[in-house]
Amino acid sequence: MAFKKNRSKQDIHDNPIDLFRSLSRRKFPTEMPHQRAIIESYVKESLKSKDVALQLPTGSGKTLVGTLIGEWRRRKFNQRVVFLCPTRQLVNQTVEQCREKYGMDVLGFTGSKKIYDPSAIAEYRQCRKIAITTYQSVFNTRPFFDDADTIIIDDAHAAENYISKMWSLELSITDEKSKAALQAVSNILKPHIGRLDFSILNGDAKSFADVGWVDKIPTPILCKIADPLTEALDVHAHGTDLSFSWQLLREHLMACHVYISYGEILIRPLVPPTWTLSAFEAAKHRIYMSATLGEGGDLERLTGREVVSRLAAPSGYNLESVGRRFFMFPGMSLQEGDIQDLRLELIKKSGRAVILTPSKKVALKAIEKIEEIGFPFFSAEDIEVSKTAFTQEKNAVAVLAGRYDGLDFPDDECRMLCVDNLPKASNLQERFFSRKMGAELLLSSRIQTRVIQAIGRCTRSLQDRSAVFISGEELQDYLTDKNLRQHLLPELQAEIDFGVEQSIGVSSSDFKDNYEIFLENGDDWHEVDGNIISEIKTMQKIDFPASAELAASVRNEVRYQKAIWASDYEKALEEARSVLGHLSAPELRGYRALWHYLAGSAAFLLSLQGNRAATETSKDQFRSAIKAATNLPWTSTLLPKNELNDAEISTDREIALQVERIEGKLIKLGMSHDRKFAELEREILQGINGTKNFERAQVLLGDLLGFSSGNDESDAAPDPWWLGETTGIVFEDYVGAEQETLGANKARQAASHPRWLKEKVAAAEGCDILSVLVGPVTKAHEGAFPHLTTVSYWSTEDFRAWAFNALATLRQLKTQLHREGDLAWRADAAKTLDQSGLSMAAIRSERLNNIAAEMLSPA
């Protein structure tokens, strides 16, 4: 063959703008003003920064900005450039945009590196073209792209799980590949966690599974079990996918945290140690493209960087105008069944629709409903390479499980977006911060970004419009809470305000009529649009509280993680104290308690290296964690009771745990309305006041009161039971008795229930269980009395009156609860439960004053 001719050199332009204007195949005549402004700012201010974040909101063309800067750096500095996307679909989409719209010849890399085109690899490595690929191609134990000079991260605001996953060992009882490992680890943990916790972890006690129960193993305990834990995971990870993350964590176990939940275990560091990944750390330049820069240093926590310089969206650029959304909140007026029927009707009117769900389980339920109307459905995998199969169908539904970013459906591709709830915490660490430490404020910016990403899947430009059908209590509560809504941009506030107003006190037919007006896009809808625009002018965005303090502390937080990862516990303690020096706002009490704990952990580990003074420092920091937020039951486990004074243990752990669980239950029932609470209240009252469903009502009441509540219909089993952490109650219900006299057999049965419960229910093993007889009897046969000396008596009418008052108190607590992890509410709730006789200790104390042998008369 003939020798190749010399390859012509590409022009080197002074800036990316000149480069773009020279691309003859581009479909755009020129860049937009805001794109030009932020590129010029980048060249002027951040060209030599190691880490820089560029803010451009959804629909503003940040893909062009990012890829253009990458292409310019490749040419200007002869650099290898990698542009990272969250998903393969986005890789394909970005490659198509670069080639077809921007006139840039780029390389796309997806799938196994074994199938990468050798010619494409050579072109990338010779700096001839930039590479577009997924996060996983860099954040990997054996990254293919380990030599990039510039790394550009698209959708950095959504990067947390993509990045942290590399350093996260996740075990699940529902995953056959890791189930045995979870069981082995739970057996190692068993002596160090509560009986109820052990049962929930193994999927036995289900009553708290729906309120997001989560816990964490304190560092002193982790130290005790480090050797057997390491040996067990060595065995179970060998030859499996678990080995990839485990090999990174194994030698740094003391720098990690072990979180447990219903059938789940997560082991990971607080901040992903990206500085240990050469493929990322060695890059000369890292750019984070984001729709939001995040308040309070969140981007640094997500990426493990001490400092990220920020370039905000250009002054004067309208950040808010990314299409128009018509929000519908059917849960504010309709029952669950009616909501699902309405959604199907609106989907039929729409033709194409997208449903976002938090899990595959919820997605399967949605698909079952879609099959009723005969529409074809598509998963994320079905449209990952191309959306054509979906968009070419006149009638179709895309059901995307756990995907709130990445897949876009602009213009006429889809007008109907259904968001079926949204888990605010995407992993156990976030859930622990929020529910156990009352530190949801730390996650506020992150949660807000996820919500905005979810509701913006079908509005990607100024001209776009979509209906957003919200179902599920958690997301509805979040969007309709005025206190949270004030932190959104004014346009989104106005859209939600309009949606709330149109969703209260209306029928299904009203929703359908309004949707027809939206679809027609005629004069009536234009009038609505004008009203929303007018409302925007009356609103303003308010920053989250304490954002400045969180931003100030983040550099020390990352340094703490670096030090403890390197086993430099003295430096870690120093950095933790520096973090605490920044956290003084009352809203940060829970987060401050967390950092006192982390400081105490560093001191504890330092003491194991022979530093005697660190022993007392550790205890002092653990005491400070307890004092910082006295209503956090988790902190009360950090020190033995004999090392705490009365003031430090004044908060009863049992009540604090009960309050925590009540909060989760009330949130699950919904805070934007009382309908679900009222339905549950009605079922309990009807059951308690009758005899047929009395036992079920007892179970539901115990669950609502924050106890582990259950029932068993097997032979010789007791009636319902309520369990706390170390004590409990088991009932013998005799409410349907037609005679006033209690027989010996019934008395013997009631007396034996505690033993049965301890033998048959794992959560009750070792608990102090009190048997309680509920019934209308006033007398007992002589043979019954020997068995009634350990059985409490509760007359049916007294129990019914008590249950009525309990529900009234719980309703009052619900009206006072405005957000998850509110430490002030928890303190008031604990006091209310105690004073109202609704804590386990108070119930048992009253029942012990009513022993059946003393209360009943001889027949």
Automatic annotation (TrEMBL):
Residue span, Helicase ATP-binding domain: 43-311
Pfam families, per database record: DEAD, Helicase_C_2
GO cellular component, one term: cytosol
InterPro entries in UniProt: ATP-dep_Helicase_C, DEAD/DEAH_box_helicase_dom, Helicase_ATP-bd, Helicase_Restrict-Modif_Enz, P-loop_NTPase
GO molecular function: ATP binding; helicase activity; hydrolase activity, acting on acid anhydrides, in phosphorus-containing anhydrides; nucleic acid binding
Lineage: superkingdom: Bacteria
Any one GO biological process: nucleobase-containing compound metabolic process
Keyword list, A-Z: ATP-binding, Helicase, Hydrolase, Nucleotide-binding
Tagged with keyword Protease: no
PROSITE patterns on file: HELICASE_ATP_BIND_1
Protein name (Swiss-Prot/TrEMBL): Replicative superfamily II helicase
Biological source species: Paracoccus alcaliphilus
